[in-house]
Specification:
single chain, alpha+beta, Transferase(Phosphotransferase), domain 1, 2 domains, 5-stranded antiparallel β-sheet, 11 helices, 22 strands, globular, binds adenosine monophosphate, transmembrane helix
Length: 538
């Protein structure tokens, strides 16, 4: 019997929704699912005037399915993208890309009209914007340098000579000897606040410590490790008598896709007969993409591990369903999804992200940020008490529920959606280098102290409304930067006390870092000092 289902009135917003077809008769039941994939032509929602961040950025938002191909024209000439002028996509969902045409140190020759053309097989859209980066220079006649320029050059030359003499005379044995590399990155946006330097201990690894599998990036060797999330410092989490709860397949009804994670797709579902006093509850269901032998083994180990982690700030794990493919893990559903998206959608760029019709977005207050931070720290105190080293603490791995309840929600390492947050080494190992301390980058050393470093980065993410750490730098530059001892700048909205906490997390020597309990109680008292008005976020 062949039947069909007609759907009308669909819009791009329905993309990713799941259609479940269920058939039942007196001998049994079967069902199949289908994901909606609605194709539509590109629309350029916004193309805004250039903004100055660390570089210049012409922000845009484009929708379309399949993903439109983008071309830029400057003064009607096709723009060839290079390292210093290129399209950067900062946020990408199924239907929508938010990004920038990034220009590094543009001059007057880059002024003029910029046209963005977006095309896919269903159509095209274009928008233009005018850019004025720098005023053209005043051309003066040769030989007519103003007097103060000549005086300036002479002054610089003279100072240089005097400095040179001093260095030659005192440099060799002086306490004030000059180091080979500068500890400060030049930052044209805010030269008054250089990046902080944390003292550089002598930590050079011996070749035997490094092991055979290392790649060299810049001046740094990075060890390559397989599936690092399962090399815990302590085996105590994997108890041999762990009882993993099994849930029947027919008790799980998929509703819609929530996202894509380390194992595979994540769905919102209804789960029947899970908790005693409710017939059904909403749950988040994680499916295992490819059930290879080793994939299955990882799946079971993760399930055992999760069964043993129970805390009010760790997402609740309900159990597994392994009756048939795909293998499924069932978690508590956290209404507002991952913390990184949540921060971005409650920050100054939220207007760009909102689609015009939905939600009036409210910017997070400092006390709400402290409340979020304090909860993650509480979760980390618990993990440390269990001798569990997370290795990948980041806002993308935390979840937000009702009333600004935040929990640590993910213990996997590699992710599709946030792939730019990870650095691929030696083929398939992905490392979240932007969250890692020097000793994890250089010697694959992951400890409770390296988690403290990442917690400092998480604080920075919270107070920047979800910016990517070192977003202005490439992965190689980030590695150079961290291993040389540079740390992230104080975010504009961050109180001094909180930045001091971050600096306490980013001490180069792990034993010098703040203790996780100290961090938690400091955040708790800061949060108490500025009470949270939760009702703002409803
Ligand atoms: P993950 O597998 O944890 O990387 O999940 C991928 C995405 O699915 C996340 O970024 C969230 O948006 C969403 N997600 C995962 N777990 C949950 C959950 N328990 N509740 C709500 N959304 C979730």
């Amino acid at each position: 019997m062949e039947n069909s289902l007609s759907l009308t009135g669909l819009s791009p917003d329905d993309n990713g929704k799941v259609i479940v077809c269920s058939a039942e008769n007196m001998v049994g039941q079967d069902e199949a699912t289908l994901l909606l994939n609605i194709l539509f032509p590109p629309t350029i929602q916004h193309l805004l005037s250039p903004e100055r961040d660390h570089h210049w950025c012409i922000p845009f938002t484009v929708t379309g399915n399949p993903k439109p191909v983008l071309h830029w024209y400057h003064e009607n000439k096709l723009l060839e993208e290079q390292d210093y002028i290129r399209t950067m996509i900062h946020e990408s969902t199924e239907n929508e890309d938010h990004g920038c045409l990034q220009l590094v140190n543009p001059t007057h020759i880059h002024n003029g009209e910029y046209r963005l053309v977006a095309k896919n097989e269903f159509g095209r859209d274009e928008k233009t914007v005018l850019a004025q980066f720098i005023d053209p220079p005043n051309i003066s006649h040769p030989g007519s340098f103003p007097v103060y320029v000549v005086v300036g050059i002479a002054g610089v030359a003279l100072t240089g000579c005097v400095l040179m003499v001093i260095i030659l005379k005192y440099g060799r044995n002086s306490k004030f000897g000059i180091k080979g590399s500068s500890s400060v990155i030049s930052n044209d946006d805010d030269s008054a606040s250089p990046l902080h330097h944390v003292s550089n201990g002598n930590n050079t690894p011996s070749s035997s410590e490094m092991g055979p599998d290392a790649v060299i990036i810049g001046m740094t060797k990075i060890p390559v490790i397989e599936n690092p999330q399962y090399f815990r410092n302590s085996g105590s989490m994997l108890k041999s008598d762990t009882f993993v709860h099994h849930i029947k397949r027919h008790n799980i009804v998929l509703k819609r896709e929530l996202g894509e994670g380390a194992f595979g797709k994540v769905f919102l579902a209804e789960c029947y007969n899970l908790v005693p006093d409710q017939e059904k509850i909403h749950v988040a269901v994680k499916t295992l993409k490819e059930a290879t032998e080793s994939g299955r083994a990882d799946f079971y180990r993760e399930a055992e591990l999760l069964t043993n982690l129970q805390h009010e700030h760790i997402v609740t794990f309900y159990g597994v369903c392994v009756e048939s493919d795909p293998l499924i893990m069932v978690f508590e559903y956290m209404k507002h999804g991952d913390l990184n998206k949540f921060l971005r959608s409650h920050g100054p760029d939220a207007v760009l992200m909102a689609d015009g019709q939905h939600s009036i977005l409210v910017e997070l207050t400092q006390s709400q940020m402290l409340h979020i931070a304090q909860q993650i720290a509480a979760g980390m105190v618990y993990l440390a008490s269990q001798h569990f080293v997370h290795r990948d603490l980041a806002t993308r791995n935390c979840l937000v529920g009702e009333n600004l309840l935040v929990k640590i929600g993910d213990f996997g390492m590699s992710r599709d959606v946030y792939s730019t947050d990870y650095y691929r080494v030696g083929g398939h190992t992905m490392l979240p280098i932007r969250w890692m301390p020097p000793e994890s980058i250089m010697y694959r050393r992951f400890t409770t102290e390296s988690d403290v470093w990442s917690l400092g980065v998480v604080l920075w993410e919270i107070f920047t409304y979800g910016k990517q750490p070192w977003y202005q730098l490439s992965n190689n530059e980030v590695i150079e930067c961290i291993t040389q001892g540079r740390v992230l700048q104080r975010p504009r909205t961050c109180p001094k006390e909180v930045y001091d906490l971050m600096l306490g997390c980013w001490q180069r020597e792990p034993y010098m870092r703040l203790n996780i309990k100290e961090i938690h109680s400091m955040l708790q008292s800061l949060a108490k000092a500025s009470p949270v008005y939760l009702d703002i976020l409803g």
